[in-house]
Amino acid sequence: MSEQRVPATRLVIFENIRGDRVPADFLCDPRGAQASERKPEGTQVIPLTQRIDVSGTVPQIEEKFFLTAGIAVPTEIRKGHQLFQIRFIFLNKDVDGDETSLNTGLLEEVVRPYLEQLSSQSYWAVREYCNPRYKEGERDGTFQSCLNLNSPESITATEWIKNDQGERIGDQPVTIVPTGRLVIEDGQYRIIPA
Q1: 3-state class of 115 per DSSP?
Q2: Angle at alpha carbon of residue 172, lines to 169 and 178, rounded to 5°
């Protein structure tokens, strides 16, 4: 199966936040963390790659994708606060039409500003799968490309440079740099040099 034959179909953004920060209009998935731990059925196309700059992709997402769900999945209680994994799920208009199950107000007031903030303030761990598509519970013989973004790191985060023996080099840590940039080219997700 060639990567070139599978369009950029689905994009899912994951972030863990406290319950009091979950937007009121988000769906709450009562199945909990187990639902988010299901293994993908398809083939990994882009392996897990850390610290990717996705800021240049946001205009393409807004133009080519529509928001189909905003889901909050309860995960754990930490320091007395219920944590949730929130998931924004986008689908490609060219592949799946142009309708969203969420109201326009949520998209304008919550999702777009959130996307812009996250993309400009964080680098992301990125992984892409080529998964089978289903219709009425059965595989329909086609495939979709699903890109997952998670584990955001602040662009202002720092780290120590270390030598081969793991010893720190220099007098102070340095600001982290992206390892690459996410783009959508010719209908495909790609990571290019930063």
Answers
A1: helix
A2: 80
Domain carrying residue 160: 3-192
Nearest to 53 by CA among 179, 176, 188, 158: 179
- Closest residue by Cα to residue 156 from 179, 182, 171, 174: 174
What is the count of structural domains for the chain? 1
Residue 62 phi/psi, 5° resolution? Answer: -65, -35
In the 8-state DSSP scheme, what is residue 95? H
Q: CA torsion sign, 156 to 191 to 194 to 165?
A: positive
* Per-residue pLDDT reduced to its tens digit, 5-54: 456 677 777 777 766 767 666 666 544 444 444 455 678 888 989 999 98
Measured distance CA(177)–CA(52) in Å, rounded: 9
Indicate whether this model's pTM tops 0.85: no
Query: CA–CA separation, 123 vs 151, rounded Å?
Result: 8
Whether residue 84 contacts residue 75, with contact meaning beta carbons closer than 8 Å, is answered with yes
